[in-house]
Amino acid sequence: MALGAASLLVLSACSTDSDDDSSTDAAATGTDTSETADSGGADGTGAIATAAVANADGDEVGSVEISAPGGDDAGTTELSVSFSGLEPGMYGMHVHAVGVCEPDSTAPDDDSDNPETGDFLSAGGHLGADGHDHPDHGGDLPALLVNENGEGRMTVTTDRIEDSDLLDDDGSAIIVHEDPDNYGNIPERYAPDGPDEDTLSTGDAGGRQACGVFEAA
Fold first, then answer.
1. Taking the complete model, does pTM exceed 0.85, yes or no?
2. Topology of 47-216 in CATH?
3. Which sequence spans correspond to the domains of the chain?
């Protein structure tokens, strides 16, 4: 035991000397050690965008972060969501093409004489929907599972979301819908002619219960 204690004292003294030398070297050479402490750094691996998500009453129910853990050249982004205070169940969730979250609003492309109104219709359709049917839109995501305690968390990696679309002039938003997403899958026994336009556009995920605008991190 005496030998072990002596060894620890020697190791402690060596460690202290080494730390002092490192600090002196860093000060002498002007080395900035703060860069290594920042996991985001300048290599493109940090958060790209974040969104605070609220329901139509303005109550915050969750948050979303989009990052590029593989770096700018990896071609994929990681989306992490965390929600609380929602009713248990499965809900469709997508990135939408317009960064505007207004309750009781109209769709930005609805110029009809009697436009439909509804919560968060201001966020438009799914991101990257042009030329594609659901579930092949850029903003299509797996469904959100909310547990019995009202909480839901998920992390998904996607190669469909481009930074240039996410944070373009009209922005983008995350939407949690009121119903599950069928991903355009309607069995032939229910629809011999195949899914209709609404199904191929939205996955029949229903109304929009929560919305959050993405902002650059």
1. no
2. Immunoglobulin-like (2.60.40)
3. 2-28, 47-216
